[in-house]
């Protein structure tokens, strides 16, 4: 090494000056035979790199073991707290009692809050008590957070060294976000999107992870981070998300009278299979609010959309198109009235992995849901092919399409007669449709006959203008190597000659 050569030169100079230098003090501490460097604690360059690499690996392993130990301690602490509280499940009566106590506590807290008090410390404690969440909510969040953390650590073990770096990056990001609570939700969203992009780039460039494993890793990272950040970034108080939720819910309640025929929905709910698909679609879109991870919320939207496509396919006996899907999705949203719809949409937009929103079926179905909500907010009489008077009467509740339909029957008519009348109306509509199809078919047949006659006349005119002359077949020429039967003065074919050698 370079420093070893310098040490040799230094020894030669020292000997010339009459100074004795002990060679053993200059050698590498590891005994490799090279000279060491005091700046590297007496090791040579090669041995110093080895020692540094070992120390680094040891530190990484200790950090990893420390994280696992802390995770186990959290699980043991939670298990011990659960055991002290008892393992008996709450019955319905206990749940009602707990709910009543919780409501009484909140009312008492509010009364105390508005009561004049001379002690500032008491008022501050009351405000903190009023803002404190329910213990059951904290316990449920803790269970899910611990489970997700354990699954995340187990998942990263398959990535070995990149998994350790990913875990450190996620912990650092969570600590940074905890210190940035004062930022606006848009700024926190930008931080999350930048973090997703940086981790994805490192997985692809630095750690050389295959694309399919990168996608799985990003899903797990999003799940781990957003599970911990959910209560801080979902519908925060600094935004008007809750106000928009109430406005959308009020709008959907006012449009309860909208029927599938008004939206041109190609779904027949009288078919049992179709009715089951509609119920499943409504269940999935409502279940979206119970999820905490943006990817899980998108999965609920995707399952709802697939049930809609199946319902349309069963009704029409053919694959559904985009023109059929969007009106049906609007009808499902109106019928289900999902809770906190705007908050869920904003949460997915702000904190979902951007690659999932920009590509794939999840992004397509989420875009359609946003379009459906925008259509509902701007729904008017023209959108439903109604007059403004009827639309206003339906919106104010003076009448409804279902009431007008029921008014055509007397109150003492049995249900079977009503069903028979509906069937007769349906048969009359089918008869009109069949007659219209027959008339169109006859028209098409006449058009085909006219087209055939026209083509035949054009061909006859062309043949008459340019008659076809068929010339007699010309006499075939004799082959060169055939017998000279025509006396065309050609020499006979050459015959092979045998020469005796």
From TrEMBL:
Keywords: Acetylation, Cytoplasm, Endocytosis, Endosome, Metal-binding, Phosphoprotein, Protein transport, Transport, Ubl conjugation, Ubl conjugation pathway, Zinc, Zinc-finger. It is found in: Cytoplasm; Early endosome; Recycling endosome. One of its GO terms (cellular component) is early endosome. Gene3D superfamilies: 1.10.246.120, 1.20.5.4770, VPS9 domain. Residues 22-56 form the A20-type domain. It comes from the Eukaryota. This is Rab5 GDP/GTP exchange factor. It comes from Sapayoa aenigma (broad-billed sapayoa). The lineage of its organism: Eukaryota, Metazoa, Chordata, Craniata, Vertebrata.
């Amino acid at each position: 090494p370079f420093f070893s050569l310098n040490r040799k030169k230094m020894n030669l100079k020292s000997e010339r000056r009459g100074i004795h230098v002990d060679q053993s003090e200059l050698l590498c501490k590891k005994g490799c035979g090279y000279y060491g460097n005091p700046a590297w604690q007496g090791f040579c360059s090669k041995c110093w790199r080895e020692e540094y690499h070992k120390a680094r690996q040891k530190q990484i392993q200790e950090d990893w073991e420390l994280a696992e130990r802390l995770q186990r301690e959290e699980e043991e602490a939670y298990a011990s707290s659960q055991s002290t509280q008892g393992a008996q499940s709450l019955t319905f009566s206990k749940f009602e009692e707990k709910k009543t106590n919780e409501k009484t506590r909140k009312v008492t807290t509010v009364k105390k809050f508005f009561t004049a008090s001379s002690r500032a410390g008491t008022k501050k404690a009351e405000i903190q008590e009023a803002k404190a969440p329910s213990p059951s909510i904290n316990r449920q969040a803790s269970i899910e957070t611990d489970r997700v953390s354990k699954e995340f650590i187990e998942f990263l073990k398959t990535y070995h060294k990149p998994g350790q770096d990913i875990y450190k990056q996620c912990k650092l990001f969570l600590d940074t976000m905890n210190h940035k609570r004062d930022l606006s939700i848009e700024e926190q969203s930008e931080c999350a999107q930048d973090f997703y992009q940086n981790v994805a780039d490192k997985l692809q460039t630095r750690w050389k992870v295959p694309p399919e494993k990168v996608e799985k890793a990003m899903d797990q990272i999003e799940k781990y981070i957003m599970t911990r950040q959910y209560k801080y970034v979902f519908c925060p108080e600094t935004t008007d998300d809750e106000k928009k939720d109430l406005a959308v819910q009020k709008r959907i309640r006012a449009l309860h009278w909208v029927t599938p025929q008004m939206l041109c929905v190609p779904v027949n709910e009288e078919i049992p299979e179709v009715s089951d698909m509609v119920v499943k679609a409504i269940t999935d879109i409502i279940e979206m609010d119970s999820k905490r991870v943006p990817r899980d919320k998108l999965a609920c939207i995707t399952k709802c959309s697939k049930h809609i496509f199946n319902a349309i396919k069963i009704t029409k006996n053919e694959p559904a198109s985009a023109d059929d899907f969007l009106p049906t999705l609007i009808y499902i949203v109106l019928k289900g009235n999902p809770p906190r719809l705007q908050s869920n949409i904003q949460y997915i937009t702000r904190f979902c992995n951007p690659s999932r929103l920009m590509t794939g079926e999840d992004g397509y179905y989420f875009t359609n849901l946003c379009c459906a909500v925008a259509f509902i907010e701007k729904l008017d009489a023209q959108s439903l092919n109604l007059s403004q008077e009827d639309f206003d009467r339906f919106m104010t509740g003076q009448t409804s399409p279902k009431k007008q339909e029921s008014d055509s029957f007397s109150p003492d008519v049995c249900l079977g007669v009503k069903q028979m009348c509906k069937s007769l109306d349906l048969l009359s509509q089918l008869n009109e449709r069949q007659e219209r199809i027959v008339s169109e078919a006859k028209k098409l047949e006449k058009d085909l006959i006219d087209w055939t006659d026209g083509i035949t006349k054009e061909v006859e005119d062309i043949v008459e203008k340019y008659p076809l002359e068929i010339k007699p077949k010309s006499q075939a020429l004799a082959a060169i190597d055939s017998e000279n039967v025509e006396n065309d003065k050609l020499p006979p074919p050459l015959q092979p000659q045998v020469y005796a050698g």
